[in-house]
């Protein structure tokens, strides 16, 4: 009788199989996105997660978990089809939950809104709770579910240091 509820990860069933790793093309490259643009999007996404986690006062393990989830997701999905900023928010929110430092989704959205204003040099204004906010919240929740589904709910990240 098979044993259920146990996940066994070995070199033969890694989370990213060899055909998804370099030098094989990622879904973004297959859809025509140049390598350097994909690289920049990955870098910007990780920087956003790092900045957001600092503002949310999350531990470094949550930052690293969010960045790993972000990279894993985009080895299975395309930047062309999925908006980087929404998925960076979703990975930040998911990482906070995984590392048992959950934050309200409103706080995550507010922090990303703040970072966007600072980076663009705009006047800092609070995020209004209007239809645009409700739509953004719905997008982030759906993106979080999509990340979980795409990764097969295998979201455990073993970090080299704590």
From TrEMBL:
<feature type="domain" description="Cyclin-like">
    <location>
        <begin position="47"/>
        <end position="149"/>
    </location>
</feature>
<dbReference type="InterPro" id="IPR036915">
    <property type="entry name" value="Cyclin-like_sf"/>
</dbReference>
<dbReference type="Pfam" id="PF00134">
    <property type="entry name" value="Cyclin_N"/>
</dbReference>
<dbReference type="GO" id="GO:0006357">
    <property type="term" value="P:regulation of transcription by RNA polymerase II"/>
</dbReference>
<keyword id="KW-0195">Cyclin</keyword>
<protein>
    <recommendedName>
        <fullName>Cyclin-like domain-containing protein</fullName>
    </recommendedName>
</protein>
<comment type="similarity">
    <text>Belongs to the cyclin family.</text>
</comment>
<dbReference type="InterPro" id="IPR043198">
    <property type="entry name" value="Cyclin/Ssn8"/>
</dbReference>
<dbReference type="InterPro" id="IPR006671">
    <property type="entry name" value="Cyclin_N"/>
</dbReference>
<dbReference type="GO" id="GO:0016538">
    <property type="term" value="F:cyclin-dependent protein serine/threonine kinase regulator activity"/>
</dbReference>
<dbReference type="InterPro" id="IPR013763">
    <property type="entry name" value="Cyclin-like_dom"/>
</dbReference>
């Amino acid at each position: 009788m098979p044993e259920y509820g146990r996940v066994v990860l070995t070199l033969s069933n890694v989370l990213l199989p060899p055909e998804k790793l370099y030098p094989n093309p990622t879904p973004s490259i297959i859809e025509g996105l140049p390598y350097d643009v994909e690289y920049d999007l990955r870098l910007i996404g990780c920087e956003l997660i790092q900045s957001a986690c600092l503002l949310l006062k999350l531990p470094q393990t949550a930052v690293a978990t969010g960045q790993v989830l972000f990279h894993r997701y985009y080895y299975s999905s395309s930047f062309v089809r999925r908006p980087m900023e929404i998925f960076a928010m979703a990975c930040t929110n998911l990482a906070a939950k995984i590392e048992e430092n959950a934050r309200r989704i409103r706080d995550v959205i507010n922090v990303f809104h703040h970072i966007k204003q600072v980076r663009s040099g705009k006047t800092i204004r609070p995020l209004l709770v209007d239809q645009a906010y409700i739509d953004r919240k719905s997008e982030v929740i759906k993106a979080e579910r999509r990340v979980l589904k795409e990764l097969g709910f295998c979201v455990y990240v073993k970090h080299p240091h704590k």
